[in-house]
Amino acid sequence: MKSIFRNQRGFSLVEIMITLALGLLITGAIIQVLVSNSLTERLNRSLSSTQESGRFIISRLRNEFLMAGLYDVLDPDLNRDLDVVLENAFVRNHPVILPGDFNAFNDVGSVQGASGTNDKVAIALQARTDCRGYKLGYAEQEEFFVVNEYFVDGKTLKCRGFDGRVLRGQKAAVGHDSHAAVTLLDEVESFQVQYGYTNNLLTGDNSARPVSYVTADQLPAVLDDDGQVVAIRIAVLIKGDAEVSLISVPSFKLLNETAISPSEKRLFKLFETTITLRNVKNFMRSRKV
């Protein structure tokens, strides 16, 4: 029995130290993998959120801007409480609303933001609801003269809708007359707009193709020279919603603006699109040089 206990031995100090060192290495590797997986998951979530937000807002703005300048006097659903022929002329000639188009509402209209700040765009059309989904006192199936305005408040892209007849002083506001804005998209770093205009005298034909793109503050001169907006180009810079810190953030150039570098070292993505105003193009094609 004594010989059996004499042959048993424990771990030496060197063996214990080697085991501890290996354990620390394995634990460190596991922690590193977990941290890496967490960072990858947050990055993927941020990429996914910006992509989803970008696709949503571009799709929505495209669908709504496509209708700018729409007015059909033959539509049986069009409300006819006022002279729709005169209203048709106004909408056709003002698909993009500028400040001053409505005497009592001078703040409504498309504005070029100063020094790279966010732009504001307003459009006119015939529709069943405004951009907020409100009927503004009209019957369920009725269509009416709508003015929709899109702008950024803080970091939130919003829209507000108006009854064009109220803006023109032709009737009193009915329902949702506060014109309160609704949120379309959060985490908007920058929102920029340009307007493609045509001029039959410059193009030499009735193609209604854009001859140049300008900002909102240049539109009055374009319109005075018998030009008309036939396309809207928008650029939106969106921030990812996940907590992802980057070593450096690249610069982004939105349309005609000077390149900007966001102050937050987060993930940002730029979305741009050009929207043809088909109703306005068809109207301009029908005009003679």
TrEMBL record:
GO BP terms, alphabetized: type IV pilus assembly
The keyword Coiled coil is assigned to this record: no
Keywords carried by this UniProt record: Membrane, Transmembrane, Transmembrane helix
One Pfam family in the UniProt entry: PilW
Transmembrane segments: 12-35
Keyword hit for Membrane: yes
Name of the protein: Type IV pilus assembly protein PilW
Top-level taxonomy: Bacteria, Pseudomonadati, Pseudomonadota, Gammaproteobacteria, Alteromonadales
Gene field: pilW
